[in-house]
Amino acid sequence: MVVSCETRGEILKQFKRNIADCNLIDDSDDYIVKWLVARDFDLDQAEKMLRRSVEWRRANRVDEILDQWEPPVALVKYYPMSIIGNDKFYCPVSVVAFGKADWRGILQSVSKTDYLRYLTYMAETNYVLMRKNSLLTGKPVTLQTFIIDMDGLSMRQMSYKPFREVGLEAIKISEANYPESLRRVFIINAPKVFTFVFSMVKPFLHQATLDKISVFGFDRNEWSVALLKEIDADQLPVYYGGTMTDSNGDSKCSSKVNMGEKVPSSYYLDVGRSVPKDDMTFFILTRGTKKKFEFKVVAANSTLKWEFMTEEGDIGFRVYYYVKNENEKVDVVSNARLESHLMMQEGEIVCTRPAIYVVQFDNSYSYFSSKKIWYRVIVDLPSLDKSD
Q: Biggest alpha carbon distance in the chain?
């Protein structure tokens, strides 16, 4: 839909009135308009998207993540994304050494929950950097640039099912909660197998995101010229066509850029058959079915906590809520298959509003196997201590 500048201005004014009650991390027009752009200036859809994201942030304590959550060491040391500088518009530039990363090792060293939380942690880190750049320059900086290096990518990496699943889930979270955050994405050294990867990802990306992506093969002259049009040479390692080196002359700037290393097995989680706790109960979920547990939450900011395991095979898990007389279900934890037969699954969310919260176990994808599920789910009321 083509919307004139004048009409966009009026829509923005109305949108700001509609969401005046929302507690936003940034109340600037540059931030608020992102949600409209992501929904083609459809007021109702943009408001629904923004309100869901605000609730997602509160439920998952995203505003406190940088201060109160300590990422697993394996992710800090081996996740292949590094901020190296700024582009010509003062937007942070990150290098992702995607192709050479040890994705199997990373995902065998952390839980799926921690992996996804770390991506949120990194997104919030970049947002803080953007705000700092805004203050330094006196100009709005609300976007970021990525260089995604596919050198070393293999079908073996892409055939690893847990990586494909968590990757798609990460894209969904990013698109739903960090809209219009990209200025440019340069995918370089893309091998033929990348076509397979991109075909899986494209359906989950908004067209506005796809328009910002440029894909290059192994022609270094071609992609380095493209990078230098957007990024000054002193903000790029020599390895990527710039002039930046480490103090020892390292052209890859290894002190700043994680170029992808094998994760030592000493970081791997000690997985095996989990043992149910004394306060757990169980049920049998037959093949091809789902089971829901409903919890009526009457006090906003209550905490819904869960832990569960299966004796054999993974299980789908989802948490959502609904309000009676409102014809809508709102996901708080999107449905995902978890390897609950290998490790105990634990988590919690803040119930941002009084509603019926539903914890759902999903075995609908299994044509042959029933699952024995041990679980414990509780709701803790919010603290009455006003000093908290």
A: 66
Cβ contacts of residue 74 below 8 Å, gap of 6+?
A: 106, 109, 110, 263, 267
* Interatomic CA distance for residues 259 and 80, integer angstroms: 6
pLDDT in tens, 242-292: 999 998 999 989 888 888 889 999 999 877 667 899 999 999 999 999 999
End-to-end CA distance of the chain: 47
Whole-number Cα distances in Å, 322 to 103, 329, 331, 356: 36, 5, 9, 5
Q: Which of 222, 182, 363 is nearest to 285 (CA)?
A: 363
Distance CA 292, CA 302 (A): 20
- Please give the full DSSP string across 123-181, using - where no structure is assigned: HHHHHHHHHHHHHHHTS----EEEEEE-TT--HHHHT-HHHHHHHHHHHHHHHHHSTT-
Q: What pLDDT is recorded for position 386? A: 45
Structure token pair of residue 21: 């009650």
Percentage above 90 pLDDT, the chain: 72
CA distance 6 to 202: 32
| Tens digit of each residue's pLDDT (9 = 90 or more) over 313-345 | 899 999 999 988 887 888 988 888 888 988 899
Query: In angstroms, what CA-CA distances link 46 with 16, 71, 206, 254?
Result: 11, 32, 14, 41
Alpha-helical (H) ranges within the chain are 5-18, 29-38, 43-59, 65-68, 73-78, 103-107, 112-137, 155-158, 161-177, 194-201, 207-210, 220-230
Distance CA 80, CA 325 (A): 46
Count of alpha carbons within 13 angstroms of residue 301, beta-carbon side: 4
